[in-house]
Amino acid sequence: MKKIIKITFINVIILIIFLVIFEFLLRHYSKINNINFTNDNKSSNLYRVYEEGKIFELFENFYTYKKKLNKRYINYYKNNQELIKIWDYKFTTNNFGLVQKFDLDVNKKSIIFLGDSFTEGQGAEPWIDNFGKSVHGYQVVNGGFGGASPKQFVYLDDYLSKKLNINKRVVLFISNDIRRGISRLDNTNCIIDHKKCSKKNNAYGIPRDKNFNIENFLSKFVFDQKLSAKRKIKFILRDLYIYQFLRTSINNVRLKNDKTINKNLEAISYLNNKYKNHIIFIKIKDANDIMFKKNSFESKLIENYFKINKIKKFNCDMNNDISLFHNHDFHPNKKGYSVLRSCVKKILDKEL
Predict the structure, then answer these.
(1) Which DSSP string corresponds to 66-115?
(2) Measured between alpha carbons, how far is residue 69 from residues 53, 57, 94, 99 in Å?
(3) Quick one: what percent of the chain has pLDDT higher than 70?
(4) d(CA 15, CA 25)
(5) How far are the Cα atoms of 59, 75, 144 from residue 182, in angstroms, in the given order?
(6) Which of 350, 347, 279, 339 is nearest to 127 (CA)?
(7) What is the Cα–Cα distance from 109 to 256, expressed in whole angstroms?
(8) More confident: 208 or 227
(9) 335-352 pLDDT, tens per residue?
(10) Residue 193: pLDDT above 70?
(11) What element of type H or E holds 238?
């Protein structure tokens, strides 16, 4: 028995030494090859801030925004005891509660851009507004909303198709979209009234007051948040380069036959079969694929699915340039959205 314990102990020590050396080599490799690893911990340190009031319009399987908004939207990243402002801009919604300056005419032939926060344009003033009211004779409809999955693209399309004269559809997506379920953002008491905020919130309302000190206000809530032992262990593991490096291999096993992924891929096929030559699919290369300089598990799965099902797909690779994304948050910045718009326009010029 003692011999078994001794052998087990030695093996554990050898494994720990190996992992430490491997971790060191990965960090060194990433440094000399300019690979900036990120992880899921970052999203836990992000805090959305809106001008207070009711922001979202909730439906059963999706959400839009309230109609005719003109709201300030700020995003902060907590780095130890410092708050770093990632972006600060105003967004406008139209007569359908969609993020764009222009109201929509229900009778005009339209083209809808379905997608997530990249389509909505989070991180800068909405890029789709730069198309103007129309593109190639079709009224522009911004059907993007944060956290959306392909299943929700279908729900929003069904809803708006009953209200607008939609003739063409463009589906813009990133690889992680297929991992998502149903996203619905709530008008919490904290968003509606900043006086009702607490440490439990991660989205906050602020008054429309130029003299209001946002950082001081957030400091009351975000710096003293305590993590459970389980979450602390998760944070430690996610910070390891080994975890990030092996993540795709782990997901190949962990997410095999994942129900959410399968339903989202089926939603893509549904849209393709329904609209045939009147729909365009565009995959946007996100910061993770660019940083790791290799395709993620999700990207490989998407490529394979489109190929097997013979679905035509275009790509916007964002010039493989990480500087086109915000630090910490990894939504495109203003320059990044300009590059995305140019890519989408080239595809539309060819396909419409």
Answers:
(1) PTT-EEEEEEEEEETTEEEEEEEEEEEB-TTS-BSSS---TTSEEEEEEE
(2) 10, 12, 7, 9
(3) 84
(4) 15
(5) 11, 22, 14
(6) 339
(7) 41
(8) 208
(9) 999 999 999 999 999 999
(10) yes
(11) helix 229-238
Q: What angle do CA 98, 102, 108 make, to 5 degrees?
A: 95
67-80: pLDDT as tens digits? 999 999 999 999 88
**What average pLDDT does range 134-139 have in this prediction?**
97
All residues at 6 or more sequence positions from 156 whose CB lies less than 8 Å from its CB, including other chains: 62, 64, 114, 143, 145, 148
- Chain centroid to Cα 140, Å, comes to 22
Calculate the alpha carbon distances from 282 to 176, 341, 343 in Å: 14, 12, 10
User: Among the residues of 276-326, which ranges form H helices?
Assistant: 287-292, 297-308
Cβ pair 329, 124 in contact under 8 A: no
Question: Tokens 């699919």 identify what position?
Answer: 281
Distances from the Cα of 320 to the Cα of 71, 182, 293, 347, angstroms:
32, 30, 9, 18
Q: Is the pLDDT of residue 231 over 70?
A: no
Token pair recorded at residue 47: 């805090």
Bridge partners, residue 57, by sequence? 64
| pLDDT score of 130 more than 90 | yes
Per the DSSP assignment, residues forming a β-bridge with 168 are 111
Query: Cβ(119)–Cβ(172) under 8 Å?
Result: yes
Provide the pairing of β-strand 138-144 with 109-115. Answer: parallel
